[in-house]
Design goal:
Largest sheet: 3 strands, antiparallel
Number of strands: 3
Number of domains: 1
Distance between the termini: 32 Å
Radius of gyration: 20 Å
Strand content: under 5%
Keywords: Membrane, Transmembrane, Transmembrane helix
Strand order of the largest sheet: 2-1-3
Order of helices and strands: HHHHHEEHHHE
Amino acid sequence: MGPDCPHWVYTPFHTICTGGHYIASATIQDTMIRLIHTFMLDSYISNTNHTPTRILLCWLASLYYQGLVKKKYKRYEVTHAHLFDFESFASVLDLMAFCNLIIFINVLDFQTYMFNKYIAVNDIKHLSQERLAAIEAFDHNTVPPKDRMRYQNARGQAYALIDWLFKSVDIIDLDTNQPVEDPCTSLWIPYIAQQASALLVYKNKAEQDKLKGAKGCTPATLKRQILLCFQGSYLEEPVNAAIEAECEVFTFLEPHRYKATRRNDLKSALHEFILSFYI
């Protein structure tokens, strides 16, 4: 079934059920919401955490990067059909949502909140101050080293895709019928900042209702990971402002206000690809 599709299962006796949700470019916004629900409500909903999904998302980042930024795939190739067409603003939102999901990939990974396989969450109170200081300083967790490298590369590709997007697609504001001058600043940055805040609001509400999500994740540890995600970047200030304002909506606020048209050339040169070193 599609991502974030409500469903229920009834059986006459206790049954172990298996199933799955597909991931597609056209439904990537739903995939993002589904992963957030799973992260926040792991013990409440039927969806279970599936670690290999993160690797698949990293592969998708590479596919989009190679296909859109590097223009690796020809129109007649099967792979090209998986790329966003940008014939409408919905495609722009799909790519923005995907890039946000990749940038949050550590934040939404269950393994980020488990310090390591030798330390249970319940044992934290018994750790020495020196050990706790080391955990705090080096952000120890159970994300495998290979996955850390995958995440770094995928985040770098996500930022490169955002850079490419707003230099390759013109966004028209239908209220004024004029091009949006700086869509990265006026559209994407508020969108990802709003989502960062919404994650914290969601977590706080789940805690109040005693609904458990990722093991070891608390509002405090989640906020720390979000702040680390943007520390020292041009997104740090708008994210902090959104958190202060307690924005609580994950979806783009005015999706029907804009239209998109693909350009034949770039508005300006692309920035150099840089790995995102937050691990």
